[in-house]
C-alpha cells in the first residue's frame, strides 16, 4: 500500500505576527512536498490546527500505520508548543517524524535542558533563570540574556550582552514584557558551532560539525532569515574539536532519548567547548536551514535526507513502547 505524508506546518500569515520566525515559507513547503512526492509518497500540506486534527482523527485505525506526519509546527507562547503534533500522533497511533512530546517540551526550555545535561557531565556555561526584573544576577559579568523558551534567535540582539547591573535591569525589564522567562548565562566570546544527530535511540549518527559565521558579534534575530541563508558554515573544524563535539552530541541524544533528528549548538571559550542548546524541531528548508547543509556536506542529497527521516519515523512507530497504549486501543 502506498504511504501518505502529512506536512503539518505553520505557513507565514501576515495576520499572525506572533509567529515571528517560527513559520515556514511557502517555497520551503512546496519544495519538501515535491521532494517527498518524488520519493513515492502521497503528500498533503496542512497548516490549521482544526484541519490537522480532523484529518488525523478520520484516518481509519487499521490504516494509520501507513501514514506519517512531518512535524514542522512550532506555534508560539506555550511551553508545550513544539509537542502538539508528537502528542497527538502518539495518542492516535500515527507515526510522526522527530522526537516525542517529552523531548520537545524539555528542549524548548533551555534552562531545564542545561540543568539536566550538566548533571551528566555535558559542559554548559553557568546559567540562571530570570523570572522578574527584580532578580539579582548571580553570574559574574559579562553575561548574556536571552528568552528561555524561544528559537530562531528571537529576542536576541547586540544589546543582550550585559556588562553591568544598570544594563541588566534595563534589558531584563524590556525582554520580560514579551517573554515569560529569561536565561542568563556566562558570556562566551569565541566562535559558534553547530552539528546534527540523526537516528533513533541506540543507533545515532552525528554529522561533522561546522563553525557558524555571521555578521556582527551576536547570532541575532536580524541575522536569522527565512528569505536567504545569511550566515555561513565553515566545515574546517580541527579533528580534535570535531571529535569532542560529536562525542558530546551523541551522548546528549542518548540522554534525551531523541528520535529522528536534533540539531545542537555549541560555543567555544578559551579552547573549551560548551553546549548552548538543543533544537528538537530544526528547520528543513533547503534555502535557509542548517541541518540540510550539515547533511549534504557528507555527500548525501536533500532527497536522501527527507527519505531517511521518514524511515526513522516509521521505525520509531514500529518499535518504540510509547505508541503501545494507542495501538492497543485503536484496534
From TrEMBL:
Annotated TM spans: none
Coiled-coil ranges (or none): none
Gene3D superfamilies membership: ATP-grasp fold, A domain (3.30.1490.20), ATP-grasp fold, B domain (3.30.470.20)
Keyword Chaperone attached: no
UniProt xrefs under Pfam families: Dala_Dala_lig_C
Recorded GO MF terms: ligase activity
Family under the similarity heading: Belongs to the D-alanine--D-alanine ligase family.
Protein name in UniProt: D-alanine--D-alanine ligase
Lineage: Bacteria, Pseudomonadati, Spirochaetota, Spirochaetia, Leptospirales
Amino acid at each position: 500500500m502506498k504511504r501518505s505524508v502529512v506536512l503539518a506546518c505553520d505557513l507565514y500569515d501576515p495576520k499572525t505576527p506572533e509567529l515571528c520566525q517560527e513559520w515556514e515559507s511557502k517555497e520551503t513547503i512546496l519544495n519538501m512536498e515535491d521532494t517527498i512526492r518524488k520519493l513515492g509518497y502521497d503528500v498533503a500540506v496542512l497548516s490549521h490546527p482544526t484541519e490537522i486534527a480532523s484529518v488525523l482523527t478520520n484516518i481509519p485505525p487499521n490504516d494509520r500505520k501507513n501514514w506519517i506526519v512531518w512535524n514542522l509546527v512550532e506555534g508560539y507562547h506555550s511551553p508545550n508548543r513544539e509537542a502538539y503534533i508528537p502528542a497527538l500522533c502518539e495518542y492516535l497511533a500515527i507515526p510522526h517524524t522527530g522526537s516525542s512530546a517529552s523531548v520537545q517540551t524539555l528542549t524548548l526550555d533551555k534552562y531545564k535542558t542545561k540543568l539536566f545535561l550538566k548533571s551528566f557531565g555535558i559542559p554548559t556555561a553557568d546559567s540562571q533563570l530570570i523570572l522578574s526584573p527584580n532578580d539579582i544576577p548571580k553570574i559574574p559579568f559579562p553575561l548574556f540574556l536571552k528568552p528561555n523558551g524561544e528559537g530562531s534567535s528571537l529576542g536576541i540582539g547586540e544589546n543582550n550582552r550585559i556588562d553591568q547591573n544598570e544594563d541588566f535591569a534595563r534589558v531584563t525589564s524590556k525582554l520580560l514584557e514579551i517573554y515569560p522567562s529569561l536565561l542568563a548565562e556566562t558570556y562566551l566570546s569565541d566562535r559558534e558551532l553547530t552539528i546534527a544527530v540523526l537516528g533513533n535511540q541506540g543507533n545515532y549518527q552525528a554529522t561533522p560539525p561546522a563553525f557558524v559565521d555571521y555578521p556582527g558579534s551576536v547570532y541575532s534575530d536580524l541575522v536569522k532569515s527565512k528569505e536567504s541563508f545569511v550566515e555561513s558554515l565553515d566545515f574546517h573544524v580541527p579533528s580534535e574539536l570535531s571529535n569532542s563535539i560529536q562525542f558530546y552530541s551523541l551522548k546528549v541524544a542518548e540522554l534525551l532519548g531523541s528520535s529522528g533528528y536534533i540539531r545542537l549548538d555549541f560555543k567555544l571559550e578559551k579552547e573549551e567547548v560548551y553546549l548552548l542548546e538543543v533544537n528538537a524541531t530544526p528547520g528543513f528548508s533547503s534555502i535557509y536551514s542548517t541541518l540540510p547543509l550539515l547533511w549534504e556536506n557528507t555527500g548525501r542529497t536533500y532527497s536522501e535526507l527527507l527519505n531517511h527521516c521518514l524511515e526513522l519515523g516509521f521505525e520509531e512507530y514500529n518499535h518504540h513502547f510509547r505508541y503501545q497504549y494507542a495501538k492497543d486501543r485503536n484496534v
